Amino acid sequence: MNQIQPYVRSLADKYGRERECLLPILQEIVATEHVLSQDAMVEVARELNLSAAEVYGTASFYSFLNTEPYGKYVIRVCKSIVAEMKGKKEIVDKLCDILKIKVGETTPNGKFTLLETNDIGWSDQEPSMLINEKPYTYLTPEKIVQIIAEYQANGKSNNHQQIN
Amino acid sequence: MKKQKINITIDGIKLAVDEQCSILDAAKKVNIHIPTLCHHEDLCVAGNCRICVVEVEGQRALSASCATPVAEGMVIKTNTAKVRKARKDVAALLVAEHNTQCTTCYRSMNCELQEIAAEYNVDNNTYISLVDPNYTIDRSSWSIEKDDSKCIRCQRCVRTCAELQHVNALTVANKGKEMKISTFLDLPLNEVVCTNCGQCINRCPTGALTERRFYDDLWDAIDDPKKHVVMNTAPSVRVALGEMLGFPVGTRVTGKMVTAMKKIGMDSVLDTDFAADLTIIEEGTELLGRLKKILVEGNKEIKLPMLTSCSPGWIKFIEHMYPNHLGHLSTCKSPQQMFGALAKTYYAEKMGIDPADVVSVAIMPCAAKKFEANRPEMNSSGYQDVDAGLTTRELGYMIRQAGVDFLHLEDSDYDSLMGESTGAGAIFGATGGVMEAALRTVYEVVTGREVPFDNLRIMPVRGTDGIKEASIKLENLLDEWKFLEGVEVKVAVAHGLKNARIIMDQVEAGTSPYHFIEVMACPGGCIGGGGQPIPTNEEIRKKRIEAIYAEDEGMPKRKSHENTEVQKLYKEWLGDVNGHKAHELLHTHYTKRNRY
Ligand code: SF4
Ligand code: SF4
Ligand code: SF4
Ligand code: FES
């Protein structure tokens, strides 16, 4: 709480305190903190002279502005209709099977969070998913095993963590 | 500049309307009814429900009439097969995601969704039900009950809380089929910044937002022979209750209301207006005391402007939003709470009843009064001063349940003690009324003369402008008040919390030019309160206000200090105005609350 206050203030100084500055501020908080905590939302509300509910309402609209803490690697499987037709279900089942979690959950070691998301722009190459910012396409259950194994092994593969 | 008129045709009728007029409003002018749900006259256009669609010639898609402005030469059809089919479909889709429980719903027979569904006779089986079987109802607040399973996501509540009240306790969270009306983090309503004003309830078209109901507890108390049930009715209830029971808007039903309550079985039917008169004596004296301390004693601790304290929605608003300025609030309790404190002391003593057996119930135009009654500090009688605060709507229900033929009831008078009142107490129900009542008394106290306004009508503080101002010069004063000679007393009146914020921003900035400010949380004052009959709009509020002033002018006494029961109370029991006992029973303190 004590560190979040000057941090949010510095973001408001940087982006401004108008209503339209809300989104860039929230995005940067999530990029650095990986979560929009209750305290962070309250501070943003205070800086921008909004109600806390307004900040929460805005954040909850966007899948990428999470108000619950996520794991280090956030897996987002595309749930577009094309993905559905191309076998998304098998991909999700495989992920659940390997990670031992359900969609919406995070592994106990805090490493992976499994989510479904709206179209991520790879409908010609479904099924697809994102791990943090990196897209994976033409997925098969076999590929999934391999990709997850890489993340589990060195925690990295060629994925670049998002930094701002 | 002459306003340009736009020529249009609706269902074959030609008419000319103002630019920017919506198709919906244009249709109203020629008495064509178009159903609406997300639209509300008090709020900005949302255009999200699509029940109001019409056909515009030359356009393939149907237009939402509430959100479409007219254009020159537009030809509109409101009653075609396509329109009827679309509306029926929209209604059926809404019903599919709605927890349809009309037989048991509090809003049944007063519900816009029910009315439209009935009008189009929708088939409940057209679409599969999408109601979440695990829905829960938020009953955490003393005032507001929120049942998302009955919400049609029209967002009228969100717009009300934002546009009229500037509180923004409610928001739209998530998207698509997950979209819902939520508080911050979907916390229970009693944990968030909500003023309990109930304005959202008054604008909710369905039973998704309602007041917490306590009339069953009251029935229990009435049926208990040991209990002595004392009721008091707020000024604005008598000009609105009739709307629920077959009378046109603006009908005064004071006498019938009293008769009905006696028939229901209340042991004593008394008048909150009595406590309103008492409030004026205490609050007026407090104001003069503050002026004296500042002007004569040079006391820098004393805060001006003094702010009225009778609206509990307003109190919670200032506690949350301006916690460092609570010293401006009058310490007077609201009339409801003064009444309650006296009901279990003075009244019980005089009537020879054990205060433990007194059940004191207030009938209020208000949702926030329920929270106020349950504030922990409101127990100066040694008991909870007010056992329950019921809304006008709840009283309407009780009268119906009792099978009373309200339309044909004879009139009767309030009981005594604490049943006498003046016109000054009555006008508490309209915005500006507390100020007018205070000025009628304070001016006369310091000058010995009546306020210099025709027939005591202080017109500058009347009407529905959001913020009203007035000033009165104090001249030729009685000796005791000479220190005020020549002072021009500046007052302001604000209603609706949006306007309260404007007033408070001035106070916070130190630029407020006023000595005394009346604030009411609800638009129009209590006549537009969150517990009043639904619907509400500017026209309805104006009619209720007219009725309040008619009530005032029909009273034999119209100044609070002339209330003989109030005079007797001080003389025989309470002692000095603003004195020790008065402070103990009639004054209170406030709590700093979180802004977020
Ligand atoms: S909200 Fe309206 S439609 Fe829904 S159950 Fe209640 S009365 Fe019926
Ligand atoms: S009761 Fe008043 S403050 Fe609370 S949510 Fe409703 S409109 Fe907003
Ligand atoms: S709670 Fe009522 S006013 Fe608010 S969105 Fe739902 S139906 Fe509309
Ligand atoms: S009333 Fe017009 S879109 Fe809802």
The order of strands across the largest sheet of chain B is 2-1-5-3-4
The number of helical elements of chain B comes to 18
Helix content class of chain A? 40-55%
Strand content of chain A: 5-15%
Let me know the largest β-sheet of chain B: 5 strands, mixed
Low-confidence stretches of chain A: 157-164
Please report the distance between the alpha carbons of the first and last residues of chain B.
Answer: 46 Å
Report mean pLDDT of chain A, rounded to a whole number. 90
Helix vs. strand class of chain B: alpha/beta
Principal-axes geometry of chain A comes out as elongated
Level-2 CATH architecture of the largest domain in chain A:
3-Layer(aba) Sandwich
Greatest interface by residues involved? A-B, 16 and 17 residues
Kindly provide the name of the CATH class of the largest domain in chain A. Alpha Beta
Report low-confidence residues of chain B grouped into runs of 5 or more.
none
Number of domains of chain B: 4
Question: What name is given to the CATH topology of the largest domain in chain B?
Answer: Fe-only Hydrogenase (Larger Subunit), Chain L, domain 3
The amount of helix of chain B comes to 25-40%
Beta-strand portion of chain B reads 5-15%
How is the largest sheet of chain A built, in terms of strand order? 2-1-3-4
| Rg estimate of chain A, integer Å | 17 Å
